C-alpha cells in the first residue's frame, strides 16, 4: 500500500484519537492496540516517513494516558508533579533550552553594559534604580551590602513577593498569545536587570557574595521566570507553527501545555519568596557564617543555593529526561 493511501485510510481515526481521546480505559486500550498495529506497519514499509513519527507520538501519548488511569483518583495531584509536568517539560525541552539561553544572553549583556555605564545601570534596574544604587553603595560602605533583605516583616515580604511574582508570571505567560514576542521581551528585560544587579556588587568585589546570598532565593525565582517565559513561547509557537493539525487545535494544545508549566511553577515561586523573606536575610547572622581569611562565609545561604541548584537540575533537567526515556522503552516493549 502506498504511503498516501495508508494515511488517507487511517487519517480520520488518528485525528479522532489525537483531538477527541476517549476517557474510557477499554476504548483507550483498543485505540492503543490499533495504533501499535499501524506503527508496526509504518515502520516496516515507511521507516523514514513522517507518518511513522506521527503514529509513534500518538501511541506514546495514549500509552501515558492508560498508565495514568491505572492510578487512583486520589493520586492525581501527586501524578501531576510526578508525571504530567516532567513529561510536558521533556516534550518542550528545546523551547526551554532556548528560553534559558535567551535569558543568559541578556544577563551577560546587562552585566557588561552596566560595568561601563553606571547611569545605564540605574535605567536597567527599573523605576527607582538610581536611588537603589546609591542606597546599595551606602550599605557596602557600612559593611552590610545586602541589608535591603533585612528590612520589613519576614511574613509580609514573603507574601508580598509571592503574590507579585505569581501575577507577573501569569501576565508573562498570557502575553505569549501575541506570537511569543512579549514573553521574549520580558525575559530579556529580566535578564538585563539581573545581570546589571550582579555587576553592581561585582564592581565592589562582592560578585561571589552576590551568588552566595542573593541566589538563596534567586535560584528558584530565576528558574521560575525562565520556565514561564518558555510557557509563553510554547503558547505563541503553537499558533505560529501548528504543524500538521488545525491552527486552533495546535493553539489549544499549546495553551494546555503552557498552563501545566505555569501551574507547576506556582510552588516554586512560593518557596522562592519564602526564602527571600526568611532565609536570604540570614546571610549576616553570626551563628550562620564562619570566617575564612577575614571573609565571613555565609554557609547557610550557600547551602540553600546548593540544594536549590541540585533540585532545579534534578527535577527540571535530569528527571524529565529519564522519565521520557523510561516511557519510550516501555512503549517499545508494548509494541513487541
Question: Care to describe what's here?
Answer:
With 336 residues, the chain is mainly alpha-helical. The chain contains 13 helices and two strands. The model has no long low-confidence stretch (mean pLDDT 85).
Outline the secondary-structure elements.
Elements: H1 3-19, H2 25-45, H3 50-69, H4 76-91, H5 93-116, H6 118-124, H7 129-141, H8 154-174, H9 181-202, H10 207-213, H11 215-240, H12 247-279, E1 290-292, E2 295-297, H13 299-335
Antiparallel strand pairs: 1-2
Helix pairs in contact: 1-3, 2-3, 4-12, 4-13, 5-6, 5-9, 5-11, 6-7, 8-11, 8-12, 9-10, 9-11, 11-12, 11-13
**Percent in strands:** under 5%
Determine the number of helices (DSSP H or I, runs of at least 4 residues). 13
Helix content: over 70%
Low-pLDDT ranges = none
Q: H/E element string?
A: HHHHHHHHHHHHEEH
Biggest sheet overview = 2 strands, antiparallel
Round the Cα radius of gyration to an integer and report it: 24 Å
Total domain modules: 2
Features:
two-stranded antiparallel sheet, 2 domains, mainly alpha, 13 helices, 336 residues
Concise account of the structure shown:
The protein contains 13 helices and 2 strands; from the N terminus they run ααααααααααααββα. By secondary structure, it is an all-alpha fold.
Amino acid at each position: 500500500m502506498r504511503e498516501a493511501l495508508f494515511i488517507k485510510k487511517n487519517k480520520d481515526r488518528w485525528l479522532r484519537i489525537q483531538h477527541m481521546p476517549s476517557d474510557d480505559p477499554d476504548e483507550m486500550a483498543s485505540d492503543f492496540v490499533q495504533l501499535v498495529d499501524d506503527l508496526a506497519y509504518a515502520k516496516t514499509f515507511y521507516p523514514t516517513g513522517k507518518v511513522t513519527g506521527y503514529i509513534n507520538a500518538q501511541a506514546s501519548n495514549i500509552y501515558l494516558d492508560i498508565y495514568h488511569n491505572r492510578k487512583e483518583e486520589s493520586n492525581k495531584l501527586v501524578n501531576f508533579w510526578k508525571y504530567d509536568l516532567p513529561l510536558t517539560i521533556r516534550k518542550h525541552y528545546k523551547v526551554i533550552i532556548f528560553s534559558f539561553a535567551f535569558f543568559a544572553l541578556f544577563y551577560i549583556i546587562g552585566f557588561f553594559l552596566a560595568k561601563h555605564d553606571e547611569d545605564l545601570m540605574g535605567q536597567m534596574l527599573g523605576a527607582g534604580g538610581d536611588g537603589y544604587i546609591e542606597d546599595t553603595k551606602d550599605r557596602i560602605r557600612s559593611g552590610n551590602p545586602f541589608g535591603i533583605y533585612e528590612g520589613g516583616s519576614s511574613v509580609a515580604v514573603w507574601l508580598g513577593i509571592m503574590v507579585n511574582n505569581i501575577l507577573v508570571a501569569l501576565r508573562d505567560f498570557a502575553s505569549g498569545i501575541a506570537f511569543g514576542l512579549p514573553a521574549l521581551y520580558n525575559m530579556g528585560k529580566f535578564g538585563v536587570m539581573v545581570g546589571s544587579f550582579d555587576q553592581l556588587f561585582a564592581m565592589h568585589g562582592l560578585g561571589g557574595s552576590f551568588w552566595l546570598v542573593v541566589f538563596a532565593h534567586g535560584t528558584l525565582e530565576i528558574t521560575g521566570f525562565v520556565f514561564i517565559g518558555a510557557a509563553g513561547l510554547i503558547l505563541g509557537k503553537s499558533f505560529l507553527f501548528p504543524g500538521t493539525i488545525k491552527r486552533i487545535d495546535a493553539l489549544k494544545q499549546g495553551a494546555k501545555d503552557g498552563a501545566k508549566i505555569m501551574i507547576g511553577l506556582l510552588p516554586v515561586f512560593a518557596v522562592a519568596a519564602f526564602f527571600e523573606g526568611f532565609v536570604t536575610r540570614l546571610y549576616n547572622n553570626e551563628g550562620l557564617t564562619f570566617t575564612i581569611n577575614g571573609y565571613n562565609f555565609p554557609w547557610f545561604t550557600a547551602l540553600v543555593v546548593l540544594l536549590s541548584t541540585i533540585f532545579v537540575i534534578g527535577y527540571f533537567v535530569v528527571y524529565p529526561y529519564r522519565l521520557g526515556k523510561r516511557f519510550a522503552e516501555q512503549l517499545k516493549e508494548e509494541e513487541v
